[in-house]
Amino acid sequence: MRVAIYSGNIPSTTFIENLIKNISSSGIKVLLFGKKFREVKYNENVEILDTPDSGLELLFFIIKESVKSIFRNPAKYLKTLRKIFTGDRGFKNKLKELGMMLPIINNQPDIFHIQWGKTLQKNPYLFELLSCRFALSLRGAHINYSPLNDNALAESYRKYFPVIDGFHAVSEAISAEAQKYGADSKKIKVIYSGVSDEFRNVKAEIRSDDSGMLKIISIGRYHWKKGYHYALDAMKILIKNGQEFKYTIVAQGEVPEEILFMLDDDELKSRVELKSGMPHEMLMKELSESDMLILPSVEEGIANVVLESMALGIPVISTDCGGMNEAISDGIDGFIVKVRDPELLAEKITELSNMKTDIKEKIILNARNKIKEKFSNENLKKGFVDFYASILKA
Amino acid sequence: MRIGLVLPEAPQYSETFFNLKIQGLKESGFDVILFTGSKNKKKSDLEIRSAYPVRKGNVFIQAFLYAYVLMKSFLFSPKRTLNLLKLESEDGKNFKECLKSVYINAHIFPEDIDILHFGFTTMALKRENTAKSMNALMSVSFRGYDINIYPLKNPGCYKKVWENTDKVHTISEYLRGKAVKYGLSENTPYKKITPAVDPDKFPQSEIRKEISVPVILTVGRLNWIKNYETAISAMKMLADDGVNFKYTIVGEGPETERLKFAVYQLGLRDKIIFAGKKSHDEVKDLMSKTDIYLQPSFEEGFCVSVLEAQAAGLMCIVSDAEGLKENIIDGKTGWIIAKRDFRSFKNKIKDVMEMNYERRKEISDNARSRIINEFKAEEQKKYFKEFFETMTKKA
Known about the structure:
The complex is a heterodimer of chains A (394) and B (395). Chain A has 394 residues and is an alpha/beta fold. Chain A has helices spanning 14-24, 55-72, 74-84, 91-106, 119-122, 126-129, 140-144, 151-160, 172-179, 197-200, 228-240, 257-262, 266-269, 280-288, 304-312, 324-327, 342-353, 357-374, 377-393, and strands spanning 2-10, 29-36, 46-50, 111-114, 133-138, 166-169, 188-190, 214-219, 245-251, 272-276, 292-295, 316-319, 335-337.
């Protein structure tokens, strides 16, 4: 079986790379199309069809692939030109798209697995030019909120979802969201992401806090959907209540004005530390030295950092957004609070910080078991093998 | 006296504040010339000099343009150009930066002016020595963005501006206070001149005998500092309490997606309307059908929309952002609520709904007469006249 994993970039995001690693190791042949930005080590089942995206390089590439294509199927080649060179996206963009499309046509997979919903709007001709099966992953913003403010995108979902042979949903919640745009529930399979072994193999100690200093951490890039402004509101409430704490945000990217503005406050400034993104091992250490992880988001698929935290044995308080309640059962293996409510978040932080050690241990144990059963790479691998098989069978 | 006004672009007809200011200055006998950015496309009755483009065509065209502009500046304004080079190099700029500085000031140098006034503080950046090298006085206006936002990512950016500014115009005491915190000398003379509103353009709305389904409004750009999320959360609580309402948000901006998602997530799509950008007349019409005006901002320089809402006699519920505390008199022309406290916003909306007609009428009348008496266009003109007439070189 040959499956193309299409995200546009090589390498792609952490979870897509994890997907490639897992399915290629189960014997499926994986094709990657797109621009290669840096060297990645894959196993022998992965084939990269690196596509230059500009300059003479692109021109030569197009000529080479065109010759191949004309020899194999001249009618198809002409159709491809016709499809790509209509519309007003600018000649440069069209050339780029031709460069992307030709190797796909010349190396057709059995299943073309699109990783991001927006591809449907950007490259709709895929469906007319390829005669293989199509799979689409339903992830985050592309489904949850982008179409709310972009009617053309919402339209493209309504138009092309019926053509998709199988959907992979990262959570039940996003599956329900996609059905609003016409995704057939029978064609959707929820496959949860897997937590890598490095998190599962160690267990963080519950810190003995002689100093009484509560250490709270959040991890994830700066974006409004991460809700850090609500977390900072909650911290203000903790200060008002006389709770001692230290709050660390580990996030990539430039600190947004909104956060800088909120931190222009002497009380908060002395208790909140912003750290920029860091490699995995350091992140694990940072996480292990915290009393709790909070996820103040307003939108998520299922946040991987929560799964990793649960695996590691750090208790989690998460807002009830996206698929988070599929990862956490409130009061059993973590805690869930309403979205957009700093008072409830602050209350829960205090409650957890006062919790007896044996109850905390029980919650941590439950969380680790949940990860082992529901969010392992073995499950992910099996999930995708079945998913692709069912698409080919249908 | 001739005043050079530096603005990003010529003010449009809707920008009352600058138009009134310029018109007032002209009526007072000042000669006004406008210096705008290179991209200015707007028309104006004023004399306009636009800056030379900083990025145009390829490297060669840009290099040629640079050479041409620099040569022209040296030939026709030799003294000013040399002064600027000297001042800039004294500030530790290298040769290339000094030449760049000449380039971005080259449209200003040929004009003889007595005062160079920067309509926004950010406009004075990289032009700190311009007035000095022309032997003119320098003044700046503080607007919300200049003081509340820009320095967050550019700490210390105004050091040179503070040093060289002879006088400051601020739209609120708060902004000036914050500028002092950021290093402006206490001794730099300043004058607070708030924006004015033409009460005829915002006639008083009728107060309804009873509010069962409140019509609520906010006008402003959809950016984080306006903090619409607090208003939306308050609406959610209102809906949970079984109150029916209609909330219209007028404006566009970078946070549209974020806010539309909030409304969707909280199940309020049938109650909250994003109306997009609206003209002055359309806003006036909306206000005439509105009961309650909300302004939940994180921070404001002053906020003209809240003035307009008071002129229209709406029930104004605003956050305790510093600039708004100077705008609304709590309990008299509206109400001030702790910022980001959506529960209190909701409670105040319910309070207003339950208030009797007389009380609401009283607030409405107070608000309207405050605008008529204290935010007159005539006063504003007078203040600006005084502002420039009494300007002297800083000691």
